[in-house]
């Protein structure tokens, strides 16, 4: 039996009000001819569009690559100017607006719960946990979720436009780096439940203060309809008419609908549910927020816990790699003061008799408070067997640590893995964490893993 296409010519004609080939069948959506899959509908977006808000087109005009997209097997291309490709081209005044219109049309396909989530840290992990919880209820093939980190003014409409017919539920991640980005994305998604996972001093350079960050994150409520529910930390709870709160461990005495005690057991509506199977502290915190979301959508809670516990940590966000008898804790995707503190606490609390070491890089976009945030890490490093630091913001910390700092380098290019590898004896655990331009982009964890495997240390 033929699989239902993602989009057909008649559907596109109805949405855009222009003639499209009635035989057109699209199986996917693409914005990049290099990664296009045959059958995709390719949007030739104009480069350097100020409406992209945080999305980068690298200044490339998609019109230049439309012909290549057709050569790669695109079902059709959406362009500003005709290529002379007949029924395989759709000429519109503005492909970017056409993409958003397509996203609005896709949103009407889902009559079940639609979740939008944002936060300063942990969005991708929370999205994976929420998706798993929903799949436990609706079935694996019935839940649509944002792929990767498609959370900006290009990624969100792209994710929406890929929403299949018949989806029982959907999850969309919304990101920001400047004021005014989240509200229009939320209005596009029209969530039934909007989650603010946390509000942390991230993007201070772009917003200026924690209060401004809170205002921007909480603007996710702009897309909620009359029956929509806002889920947010108890101590950041605005006067929204329909909300569910959870304890984010920031406001002592805050009254929350969902909270987790020191033993990892929920209080409030989810009383008695044990979250310790999820492992690390940050995963338990995220799970508390996810259960609040399920409650807001009137979905069962208990089946969600084993489903969430089975979700592996995403690469670069806490995944553990065994190599050469050692463990690399890959937190290389990003870092902020909160996530850095949690990662160090989890490392110190991790079972095992081997040495515990950390390779840490600068935390970026913290504005004028950056030196203070980096200085505060000193107390978190007590008890480690080795500390290696990278980046100019880490230099003062390295100087204060003195001999307790096993190495400092000013840049990724200068980083020498040899002393780090020398410190990794069998059974050792090494945390690698910093803003992603340091370790993630340089594939530092992969290089460490390859070196350890080549060294051939046998597991103890």
Question: Could you write a compact summary of the structure shown?
Answer:
The chain contains 15 helices and 20 strands.
Report on the structure:
- By secondary structure, this protein is of the alpha/beta class.
- It folds into three domains: about 90 residues, MurE/MurF, N-terminal domain (Udp-n-acetylmuramoylalanyl-d-glutamate--2,6- Diaminopimelate Ligase, Chain: A, domain 1, 3-Layer(aba) Sandwich); about 200 residues, UDP-N-acetylmuramoyl-L-alanine:D-glutamate ligase; about 140 residues, Alpha-Beta Complex (Protein-Tyrosine Phosphatase, Chain A), CATH 3.90.190.
- Helices cover about 30% and strands about 20% of the residues.
- It has 15 helices and 20 strands.
- The chain has a six-stranded parallel β-sheet, with helices on both faces.
- Helix 3 crosses helix 5 and helix 4 packs across helix 9.
- The model has no long low-confidence stretch (mean pLDDT about 90).
Low-confidence stretches: none
DSSP helical segment count: 15
Helicity, as a percent range: 25-40%
CATH-assigned homologous superfamily of the largest domain: Mur-like, catalytic domain
Largest sheet: 6 strands, parallel
* CATH fold field value of the largest domain: UDP-N-acetylmuramoyl-L-alanine:D-glutamate ligase
Helix/strand-derived class? Answer: alpha/beta
- Hey, roughly how much beta strand do the residues contain? 15-25%
CATH top level assignment of the largest domain? Alpha Beta
Number of strands: 20
What is the overall shape? globular
- First CA to last CA: what distance? 53 Å
